[in-house]
Amino acid sequence: MSDIGVPANPGGDDASDGATSRVTNGATIGSSGTARGRVVVVVPARGGSKGIPGKNLTRVGGVPLVVRAVTAAVASTLVDLVVVSTDDDRIAQAAEAAGAVVVARPAELSGDEAGSEAAVLHALDALRGGRATEDPEVVVMVQATSPFIDASDMDAAIRRVLDDETDSVFAAIETHDFVWTLVDGAVSAVGHDAAHRPRRQDRAPHYRETGAFYVMRTEGFRTGGHRFFGRLGIAVVDPMRAIEIDTPDDLEAARALAPLLDRIDGAGAARGAVPPGGTGFACIDALVTDFDGVHTDDLVAVSTDGQESVTVSRADGLGVEQLRTAGLPMLILSRERNAVVTARGRKLGVEVVQGIDDKAPELRDWAAGRGIDLDRVAYLGNDVNDLGCLAIVGWPMAVRDAHPAVIHAARVVLDARGGHGAVREFAERRLAAGPVAAAHPVATAPAVAAAHPVATTPTQPSADAPPPPANEKE
Questions:
Q1: Structural contact between residues 470 and 460, judged by C-beta atoms closer than 8 angstroms
Q2: pLDDT band, very low/low/confident/very high, at 13 (cuts 50, 70, 90)
Q3: Which CATH superfamily is domain 284-471 in?
Q4: Is the pTM value of this prediction over 0.90?
Q5: Dihedral angle of Cα 163, 165, 167, 172, to the nearest 10 degrees
């Protein structure tokens, strides 16, 4: 998954017109008199959904669907303005934060029977309600239910319309499937002769719409009132990225695919859609981790006298050292009350807050106290007690062997398992992406806090001595 910086004024030449806005009867329009240039994307995203309640805010790979759609559009090199048409305040807030202008959709266009074309036409009318005297040359309808849109596919389709090759281009995949209908008990072949079964390589492909995007010449769209008009073209896309979310099963399939399709390399070069904040791992300004299951393998050894010990990785320790040297603020945030957490944090030189049942408020306070935007914080977790923290940061991450719910909530799933180099993997990928911002100095003598009394065990170090190594099998 790539990380794409989202400018307040994406792609346009009229930067002085301001940042995002909500449009009811007018819009912030460029001085050219058109609705912010030649190409405008409209994402219809109403609040109601029967199959999956709140679908457009449902997260895939840790990112709400509407945000994925907006960011894929912003990543396009040819798009001048991204608009989200919605009747829902929460969708509007998420869309604005991702870099879109929001058009308030009226109730009569927000019901179950309302068509997407009507929402796009309304958005175009709303944009022209300001200083615009004409429509954009091209309008692109992007559907948030397609979570894996490749911006380069969209760009190629837009270019075909701008170059007057076609009037309307839609995303589709090739298929050689044999399709049939069943109507009142009667079975009929569709698009093929049932008496003739040629080999796959001898058949011309058919094309199935993916629903991801429709690129249209605006004049023809207004005239026809629907997305298929004039000279039609097909943008053939990768079948792996062509999933459309309509049912809970579709959602589970998309979440399973996200760790593969949203893979980010150290430089952030990939094709997925992610929230704003920078380029790849380079936009991460702080790391917060759980302890058990991240620094450890989530196992505990219990002696005959009831004493507990855990195993950690020397590789993780070196990774933490690299991050500290680079100046990246770090925090270990744990529910665990055993003093081994404090001992490990002191040895690593990392701040520790432990004994916390509700970790998200503590994370908010920690970031606010250091002036770090939560959108630029990575939280690395492994189990369901991490879900609250994963939901509030820009970079929710999971170790490879995390609970399925955590995998679903994660924007990035690391290759390493907890206690087996996951922190080191993060460190290498973060440092490969670029230098750490210098605005947040890292304390050399980190504070250690506990909301509840810490259990006194042989793992508890004395105040003037280093922690004993017996419980830390590196």
A1: no
A2: very low
A3: HAD superfamily/HAD-like (3.40.50.1000)
A4: no
A5: -110
Task: Please choose, from the candidates 135, 125, 128, 1, the residue with its C-alpha nearest in 3D space to the C-alpha of residue 61.
Answer: 1
Q: Which long-range contacts (CB under 8 A, 24 or more apart) does 346-349 make?
A: 346/446, 346/448, 346/461, 346/466, 346/467, 347/317, 347/466, 347/467, 347/472, 348/317, 348/320, 348/321, 348/324, 349/320, 349/321, 349/324, 349/444, 349/445, 349/446
Confidence of residue 23 (pLDDT cuts 50, 70, 90): low
Q: Which two tokens stand for residue 423?
A: 């922190």
Contact 82, 70 (CB under 8 A): yes
Task: Tell me the CATH number of domain 15-261, given options 3.30.470.10, 3.90.550.10, 2.40.440.10, 3.20.20.70.
Answer: 3.90.550.10
pLDDT score recorded for residue 177: 85
Which residue is it, tokens 């206690």?
Answer: 419
Q: What is the mean pLDDT of residues 296-318?
A: 90
Strands (E), 128-227: 138-142, 168-175, 179-183, 186-190, 206-217
| For residue 241, pLDDT beyond 60 | yes
**Are the C-beta atoms of residues 86 and 123 closer than 8 Å to each other?**
no
- Cα-based distances in Å from 152 to 210, 214, 236, 278: 16, 14, 12, 19
pLDDT band of residue 439 (cuts 50, 70, 90) is low
